[in-house]
């Protein structure tokens, strides 16, 4: 169980995240929507332990975000909005590179299987020659090397074709429902949010997303 | 550490050509630079013709002294040939060691013992004439000393009787030991110019090597800039080891790699240019390597794009090399403003110092960087 209580984050005098509280259970896929600058990425970065906690508390099972951030990183997989891979490396080299520095050791076979599960089969292909969709899949696969309990994805499918988006969505859904991963997902694609997420949190004051999602029968909570 | 080495090797495999280029640049560039400079120096020597008509030891010695002058290119030839080449302006001037040179010197007769021929294009005649006159004067002085000793022996009826050769030999020995008129142009920590390396002496080999070593280090340390790209940094921050620890371990790998190449470079340079090579110099190289690796690392931390990093690293390297006396002598500058000597890590290296203010200050800054708490958890 991931429990966020009264979380607030300021950048100088600007309040980016204000008194946010929510709970997410294991195996849930939760969407995070809101207009640009609403604080989605900041919230995701705090949950990923990349930005220190200032006000409020976050706990994952028995682990506290303030005190145990190193241990928490072992449990968290973070997929950044930008594709964070070595362009000159092949898919295999990228996987091996991050596996070497990862929390767990995986064999080449396991790494390859992880890519194949995501329908990324160009194992020896240079990353820079991959399509946008394949790069996105690699970006996610690297974050899954250490088999994290929580997966935080910051617009993981932006700028890619529908087929790749469907494949990624389907894989993530299986990951939550069959492997018990907790997934928090930000996207501007409402169709994707509706089809993939169990619940949706709307961040920011703009009611646009809430109304749109409720019109499509999705339960939305405003943070 | 093994994991870091594996990941670094993955990078190096992709950059093998550029990595080898930068690793080999200091040794290749230093050898090329010094060889070219020496060649240029030889090409700019003043060509003179030397006609030796006296077949004696003293004439041979004078001929050898002229030949050893680093600013003069001597061509020995007969009189007719020498005058033809002088007329054709292939020679700046012609000097003839006349028959009876040794006899005249020994008889204390200094008139017309060396004859000079010039043309209307003999631009460097005066300095060459002065140089040769000084060699003749040296022989004449020794000979005159022998005459005076002989006269004193006869006047005071001394039992011991020295031969002319003994007095001349002793006179030459004293002159060489005292080296009253000797001066040389040299850089810090440079061996005395000798006949074998006289062409090299004007260039500070270690200074040139250090300049290229610094430039190379800056260019090799672009990995810090690349791995600090925000997207990659996020990923590297969430891995098993903290991001700073990742950077530090990579820095150590580069320290070893460059350190090994430094020692190879130094061995080659020492042999190739006949330079001295001892244990204290090895320590000075290790200290210099530690210093410039920290300079490059801390400098590269401030950059987000490799382009600005490269164009900033170049002037910084050149400035440090110049102010450190690696490329031109800065003794006068330092005598006037002593604080200038602290502006570059080249100064302590060229002086052969192992512990320098640069090393200490950089170690402190490096430690502060490593232990300082970041605003982010990374």
UniProtKB/TrEMBL annotation, chain A:
Chain ranges of the ABC transporter domain: 2-222
UniProt entry tagged with the keyword Mitochondrion: no
Entry's Gene Ontology molecular function annotations: ATP binding; ATP hydrolysis activity
Keywords assigned by UniProt, alphabetized: ATP-binding, Nucleotide-binding, Transport
UniProt KW Transport keyword: yes
PANTHER family per record: ABC TRANSPORTER ATP-BINDING PROTEIN (PTHR42711), ABC TRANSPORTER ATP-BINDING PROTEIN NATA (PTHR42711:SF5)
Family: Belongs to the ABC transporter superfamily.
Name of this protein: ATP-binding cassette domain-containing protein
UniProt source species: Aquibacillus halophilus
Lineage summary: Bacteria, Bacillati, Bacillota, Bacilli, Bacillales
TrEMBL record, chain B:
Protein name: ABC-2 type transporter transmembrane domain-containing protein
Transmembrane segments: 203-225, 246-273, 279-300, 307-330, 350-371
Domain ABC-2 type transporter transmembrane: 19-352
Compartments, as annotated in UniProt: Membrane
Residues annotated as signal peptide: none
Cellular component, GO, one term: membrane
Superkingdom of the organism of origin: Bacteria
GO molecular function, one term: ABC-type transporter activity
Organism: Aquibacillus halophilus
Membrane topology value: Multi-pass membrane protein
InterPro entries, per the entry: ABC2_TM (IPR013525)
Keywords from the named record: Membrane, Transmembrane, Transmembrane helix
Entries under Pfam families matching the protein: ABC2_membrane_3
């Amino acid at each position: 169980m991931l429990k966020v209580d009264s979380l607030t984050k300021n950048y100088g005098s600007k309040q980016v995240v204000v008194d946010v509280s929510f709970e997410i259970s294991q195996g849930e896929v939760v969407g995070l929507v809101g207009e640009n600058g609403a604080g989605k990425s900041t919230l995701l970065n705090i949950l990923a332990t990349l930005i220190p906690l200032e006000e409020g508390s976050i706990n994952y099972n028995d682990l506290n975000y303030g005190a145990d951030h190193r241990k928490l990183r072992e449990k968290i997989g973070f997929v950044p909005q930008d594709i964070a891979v070595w362009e000159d490396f092949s898919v295999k080299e990228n996987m091996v590179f991050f596996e070497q520095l990862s929390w767990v050791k995986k064999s080449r076979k396991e790494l390859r299987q992880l890519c194949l599960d995501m329908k990324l089969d160009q194992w020896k292909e240079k990353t820079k020659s991959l399509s946008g969709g394949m790069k996105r899949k690699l970006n996610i696969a690297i974050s899954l090397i250490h088999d994290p309990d929580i997966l935080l994805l910051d617009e993981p499918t932006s700028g890619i074709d529908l087929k790749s988006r469907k494949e990624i969505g389907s894989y993530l859904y299986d990951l939550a429902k069959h492997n018990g991963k907790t997934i928090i997902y930000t996207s501007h694609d409402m169709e994707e949010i509706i089809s993939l997420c169990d619940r949706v949190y709307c961040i920011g004051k703009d009611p646009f997303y809430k109304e749109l999602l409720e019109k499509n029968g999705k339960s939305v909570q405003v943070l | 550490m093994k994991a870091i080495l594996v990941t670094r090797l993955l990078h190096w495999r992709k950059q093998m050509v550029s990595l080898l280029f930068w690793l080999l640049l200091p040794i290749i560039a230093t050898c090329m630079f010094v060889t070219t400079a020496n060649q240029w120096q030889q090409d700019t020597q003043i060509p003179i013709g030397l006609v030796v008509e006296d077949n004696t030891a003293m004439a041979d010695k004078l001929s050898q002294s002229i030949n050893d002058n680093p600013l003069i290119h001597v061509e020995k030839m007969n009189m007719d040939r020498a005058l033809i080449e002088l007329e054709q302006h292939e020679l700046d001037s012609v000097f003839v060691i006349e028959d009876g040179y040794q006899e005249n010197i020994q008889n204390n007769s200094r008139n017309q013992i060396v004859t000079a021929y010039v043309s209307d294009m003999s631009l460097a005649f005066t300095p060459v004439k002065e140089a040769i006159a000084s060699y003749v004067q040296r022989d004449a002085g020794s000979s005159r000393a022998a005459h005076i000793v002989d006269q004193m022996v006869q006047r005071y009826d001394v039992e011991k009787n020295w031969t002319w050769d003994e007095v001349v030999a002793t006179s030459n020995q004293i002159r060489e030991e005292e080296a009253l008129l000797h001066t040389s142009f040299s850089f810090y920590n440079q061996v005395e110019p000798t006949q074998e390396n006289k062409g090299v002496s004007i260039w500070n080999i270690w200074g040139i090597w250090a300049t290229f070593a610094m430039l190379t280090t800056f260019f090799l340390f672009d990995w810090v800039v690349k791995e600090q790209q925000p997207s990659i940094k996020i990923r590297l921050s969430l891995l098993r080891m903290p991001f700073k620890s990742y950077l530090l371990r990579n820095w150590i790998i580069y320290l070893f790699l460059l350190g090994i190449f430094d020692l190879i470079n130094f061995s080659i340079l020492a042999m190739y240019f006949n330079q001295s090579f001892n244990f204290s110099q090895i320590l000075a190289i290790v200290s210099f390597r530690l210093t410039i690796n920290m300079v490059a690392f801390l400098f590269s931390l401030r950059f987000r794009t490799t382009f600005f990093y490269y164009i900033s690293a170049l002037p910084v390297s050149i400035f440090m090399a110049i102010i450190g006396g690696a490329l031109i002598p800065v003794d006068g500058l330092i005598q006037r403003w002593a604080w200038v000597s602290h502006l570059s890590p080249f100064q302590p290296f060229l002086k052969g110092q192992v512990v320098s203010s640069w090393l200490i200050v950089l170690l402190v800054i490096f430690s502060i960087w490593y232990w300082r708490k970041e605003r982010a958890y990374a």
